[in-house]
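User: These chains co-purify. Model them together.
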Amino acid sequence: MNVKAQAVLWVAQRASAAVLALCVTVHLATMVYAIRGGLSAAEILSRTRGSVGWLVFYTVFVLAVTVHAPIGLRAVLEEWFGWRGTARDVLLVGLTLLLAVLGMRAVLGVFL
Amino acid sequence: MQVRVWRGKADGAFQAFEVPRHASQTVLDAVTHIQRVLDPTLAYRFACRVGMCGSCAMTVNGVPRWTCRTHVDKVVKNDRMELAPLRNLPVIRDLVTDMSGFFDKWAKAKGRFSGSRTRNDDFQKIEPDSSGRIAVDAGIECIGCAVCYSACDVVAARPDYLGPAALNRAWTLVQDERDTRTLERLRAVAGDAGCHSCHTHMSCTERCPKGISPTAGIAGLKRKVSLALLRNTL
Amino acid sequence: MSLHTGTLAALVHRLSGILLALFLPVHFYAIGTTLESAAAFDALLAWTQYPLIKFGEWGIVLLLAAHLGGGLRVLALEFLPWRDWQKSLAAAAAALALAVGLAFALAL
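Assistant: Joint model of the three components:
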């Protein structure tokens, strides 16, 4: 990967971090509020089913995470496990896809 | 006090010496005593012994320091002190390291000034309170002692990481409006081996004996590279 | 490697990130069971009555808050003008994480 691509990864990491700062704040606040006294599928789904607002919010959240987490792990794999090169990056692309698929499945699960 | 000193190269061992304590004794005084009185085969570096040249830098109780500017009283614990060569550099012998890799990285970061004027032109006038000059002044006093390089955990984790000193020097040149090679320099300091791998541990800032903050300069380089990316000039 | 403020903040940030990255696929998978049926999801939610699971949930929330705090610290250091309060950013990040952890614990 050339230097310009590595610089793009850095920008993507910080941009997704900024998006996540907002999403995480909303998510934590929502969870603290909603979990009071226990949680059930019915309670969650009554809020999210058919709600375009939550659909948009969680889609943005999931996509930001799929960008942010693998780039973060890329540095960890290199610095703590000495793993560099294309094989590592290919694995991380695979992880990105896994997170995207599982994440959107979850988003659609609570929306539909 | 007991002073344990690294002997040998990468393979080696600590050797213990009994060194008398004196008032206002520096760590360099202790090393000098060992070499002159106890064991003349000990290899170590020093020059000015007054905190100007940075040659006496070594690891004192796990922390990279200038030994001429470190009082024994400040670092000795239970009458013991441990001295080792600077981390992240190959060991030539005992307390002496090979600094060539450190300086090679300065060259890789394009840490050299490239002006456009000749001796026939007038001086370029720089406002001392311009933001560029203030940024340069904050980082220009680096004397290349490698304390920051030793302190840096990213240098330890990534052999090709340019390191805080080289990146700080690149920053002072990027901020110098007289320099003509900014884009080339930004390309040299970007990426995994450059500014983007700084994780803001700030060990460099913590340990720099000149009070420079390479972290600040590296953050500046990150912003400059991002701007160049957005403008598609990188 | 000496553990001063910045190194500790970066270590917490990195460790929390790794643990969250490991947790996320599990989290996504669990919520995705709602696609099968609400009952399938409720079966998984039944696990949350156990104290150990509740403790784990609280732990994840704490990790998320810690990672957010550490991340805000990095963004501040990289994008805001340089000032002398950089060290206090680490303390602020820790305080934020603990506050969120407390709020969640009370909600549980």
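Chain C has a mean pLDDT of 87.
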